[in-house]
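Entry 14. Structure prediction run on the chain below.
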Amino acid sequence: MARPSIKLVLALRETALRLSAPSVRYEWSHFGHCNCGHLAQTLTGLSPKLIYDAAFHRAGDWGEQAKELAQVDLGDRPALDEGALEPSYEELCSATGSPLSGIFAVMREAGLSALDIGHLEDLSDGDVLRRMGKNQTGLERNQRENVVAYLAAWADQLASKLTLEERRTLDEWSSDQASPLLLAAE
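Output returned:
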């Protein structure tokens, strides 16, 4: 399960809200407009085209690429959070050769694991599905309304695991008129 954080809860809610608008493009088979692509847009601020272009440096869907990049051996270099890699969206990552690694780094920093990314793409996390009253095969992964419901349920599930102080902060920020992720960055 994802690491609960205010930033991730806000990103999930913002993504669900954006996707609930019929005018927003949703296409499960497009890396920039699919389940993970929309969350990546929210977390990184990148356009769907940049996300799509980044994804095609490696084979596989979001879940497969997330697992592969999570297993990259960095040798004796420090981990990402220790400053070894400074991902750039214009250049290839020196360790992986993929600009998608920078996007995954942002997603990991928000609290997502490779497994979470795979579950989001397939709408398959058992805990989220149970929260929704569904079984393991309860949702079609390529239906906009299913994605919106899944994101909202996941956000609520993670919000329930935040500390009391974090939930108060989340409530304050959620009622504010400014972009929630801009507020979360403060």
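The chain has one domain: 6-175.
Filed with the rest of this week's runs.
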